[in-house]
Amino acid sequence: MAFGCAYSVYGGSGLPPDTVFYLGRDTFRTPVYAFYGLQKGPVMVLDAGIHGDEVAGQYACDSLVANISIQKGTLYIIPRTNREACFDTIRFVNRDLNRTFPGDTCWLDYEYTLSYMFMQLIDSLRPNLVINLHEARAHTRTMTTKNKNDKAFGNTLIYVGETKDDILAGAQYQINRYLSDPDEKFKLHDFPFMAAGSLDNMYYRLGIKSFTVETWRGYDLPFRVCMQTAISLEFMRQLGIGFTINGQQ
Ligand SMILES: [Zn+2]
Hints:
Elements: E1 19-23, E2 30-36, E3 39-48, H1 56-67, E4 68-78, H2 83-87, H3 110-125, E5 129-136, E6 156-160, H4 166-177, E7 187-191, H5 198-206, E8 209-216, H6 221-239, E9 242-245
Parallel strand pairs: 3-4, 3-5, 5-8, 6-7
Antiparallel strand pairs: 1-2, 2-4, 4-9, 6-8
Helix pairs in contact: 1-6, 3-5, 4-6
Zinc ion is lined by residues 50-51, 54, 134.
């Protein structure tokens, strides 16, 4: 069952979430699905839809919500962080959410408020790891030192500062075992400091480790969803969360 793809979003066999609560408010509020294992253990937040037009991670989250059961540790899944942008399949409503951290409630812009609420939520949950599911328009093979702004991040796992660790390396190793084409293999990318980005704010403000998954949008959507699902499960395994997916370990 390469990539753990042999299950569907609908009719899943996982236990229903223990709790559903909400990030944001009014028309923008978006569900956070919480799964608590009977055994205490690490805590992970998995989010997608920070950019609304990057759909593979959103579908991967839907699939996990329907199919996962947690035995040890805690998992929170936010399939559509920027709900309004996700519904319209657009990158953002007012401005790029991943350039608005740590946010501010005084701003009229929707994304500034949302990133503030997101920071508050993560700070209250105090997870050991936050994984953000994104997608990239360009492949890393097109990246040069001169076109850093082209977002040629497919397929990469992005970290900041000194956050590179065994969990990241382990997840990279495991996912790449299933990918035979060298172009598909995930590379690690050290993202330069970005004061308004989610990774730097998680790590430097909250002291919480966070990595970003980027799949290349040139691949077929089902394959991207499979990769996003598989890498999410690998991060959970590496962190020490105990789970079954579709009834299997
Ligand atoms: Zn993105």
